[in-house]
Each structure stands twice: as C-alpha cells, then as structure tokens.
Amino acid sequence: xxxxxxxxxxxxxxxxxxxxxxxxxxxxxxxxxxxxxxxxxxxxxxxxxxxxxxxxxxxxxxxxxxxxxxxxxxxxxxxxxxxxxxxxxxxxxxxxxxxxxxxxxxxxxxxxxxxxxxxxxxxxxxxxxxxxxxxxxxxxxxxxxxxxxxxxxxxxxxxxxxxxxxxxxxxxxxxxxxxxxxxxxxxxxxxxxxxxxxxxxxxxxxxxxxxxxxxxxxxxxxxxxxxxxxxxxxxxxxxxxxxxxxxxxxxxxxxxxxxxxxxxxxxxxxxxxxxxxxxxxxxxxxxxxxxxxxxxxxxxxxxxxxxxxxxxxxxxxxxxxxxxxxxxxxxxxxxxxxxxxxxxxxxxxxxxxxxxxxxxx
Length: 361
Description:
The protein is α+β, with helices and mostly antiparallel strands. 13% of the residues lie in helices and 32% in strands. The protein has four domains: 5-104, no CATH class; 181-228, Cysteine Rich Protein (Ribbon); 243-284, Cysteine Rich Protein (Ribbon); 289-360, Cysteine Rich Protein, CATH 2.10.110. The strands form eleven sheets. It has a three-stranded antiparallel sheet with strand order 1-9-10, with no helix packed on it. It has a three-stranded antiparallel sheet with strand order 4-7-8. The termini are far apart.
C-alpha cells in the first residue's frame, strides 16, 4: 500500500510585505542637506500562501514640515499586472497573481484533468496529482484520503478492491494473501501456511519434506504409503536395492527359500507352485531320487542338466546305473531287470545257466 503527500507545490509558506521609506531633512545652518535612507522588511505567516497587497510600495518625502506620499506599485512577475489590492503568491521571491501562478505552476488533477488551484489541496503520489475530492478508488469510488491504497497500471484502488482484482491468491483456499501473512511457494504455486497440507492426511507440512504428484502435495509418509514400491512379502517400502521375482518386488533380505529361508538374492534358485526354493531344498523336496543311492537326481548344487536313466517309474544317476553283479556301467546298453536289480545280459545269462544246472542236479 502507498502513501501520498499534500500541498501547493512551488509556493513558499510565508508572505512578505515590504515597505521602503526614503526620508529627507535639512540639517545645519549652512544650507546643506543630508539624505538618510532606511528599508524595513516585515515577514508574516499565511496558511493560504497568499499576500493581500493593500498599499503597494510607498516613499515618504518630508519638506518644510509637509508630508507627501508617492505610491510605488507591485506587479505580477509573469503578466506585469498590478497586484495592488489583490492576493498574490511568492515563488522564488517573485510575486505572481493567482491566475498566472495557477497557469504556470499548478498541477492538473489525474482524475478530472482540471487545474488544482491554490485554494485546493494537492494530493500527490509518485508523479501524479489529485484534488482531494478526486482522490478516490478507481473501482468503488471510495475516498482514499488518509487511507492505504494500491496502485496498478497507473490507477489507484482501495485495499479491498486491489485485493479482489490483483492480489495473489492461495492455491489451497483461494483467498488473497494479506499483509504480514507467511507464503509457502513451490514452482508457480503458493499457499497460506495453514493451507499447505498433505492432501491425504491433511497435516500441515510447513518446512518438512514433501513430494508433489501431479497437482497434489503429499507428506513423505503418505506418499510412500500410496505410491512407493513395497515388498510383496513384508509389505514395507523398498527404499533401496531389492529384487524382482515374477514381476513382483522384494527386499533382498525378504527373498528367501520357501523351505529353509536362506537368502536367494544373487543365488541360483528354482520354483514350485510360484514359490522360490534354493537348489538343495528343491532337490530334497521335489526331485526324482536315484533307485540305487536314493539321492535326488539334480545337477550341480541341485540344479542343472544331470544325466540320468529312467525306466518305467524308476530312475538312476548315470554313475549309479551299473550291473548289480559285475558293476559294469549299463548306460547306453541293454539291461535286464532282475528282482529290482539292473543286470547286464552277460551276467543275466550266467545266472540263468547256473539256475538251470542247479535244477538238473
């Protein structure tokens, strides 16, 4: 808001009345004459900055006891008209009649464009001037004399009209920012301090951390609860690291074997029914077992492309698939199953001959 000053520019705050008196008298018996000249200046205050010149300048001549007065006139410095019997204004010690002073020095009102005469108060703001009666709000026409006002595009407004038309407004409540109010700003948006709140919990954010999303403002906690990536196992926010399994996020420490809970982060693993298992547990729980050694048939560390031999519902590690009699590997060879044992054809033949000999005895 602005303030203004009032007064009549250029005019002095006092009026001078000058009387110059020249006194002559004869002195002595020799007939000589002495001339004594005196000048008297009186100063008086005038609230209207005007002087009433009644007698002009007068000279006083005394001869032989007779007083003779000769009037010397005062004239307007601009038009040279006599000021005798008229009000006038002094400017830079020069007298001006009212008409000349107003035409030369007075300001024009910014509202009505008329001259602000010497009998009017001149209200000024920056380089503009107004009559007291013309100093009003551009919109509601309320007098702004002795009131705060605002200026926009060379026009003046009362506080209410200025706020309603030009004051910045809160993006939260839509009200204007009054003098002394704290303003919270982010990019091109601004809020009253009480309006700068989380859109979810409505708690004031103040100077605390916040996260913007589209046109909404969130406190850190609400943003994490609503948008941050959460572990599929513990449902807590993953702040750093993490692994992805089947397009689902996990904390590294939460991504463990379903059976033994050993961490699988950075390790080879497999799954069963969408559940992750380490190689050892998967082999123990789900792999075929060797008919010979009863151990799981898995690759190195429980996974891989371990070669094995399968027959009907039975399976053997390659290294376990040998003849029960001669221990010769039967991988890739024909074999005979004898009472659950794998027997090479040669050993089977020998056994059959031995059994026949025993029957013939």
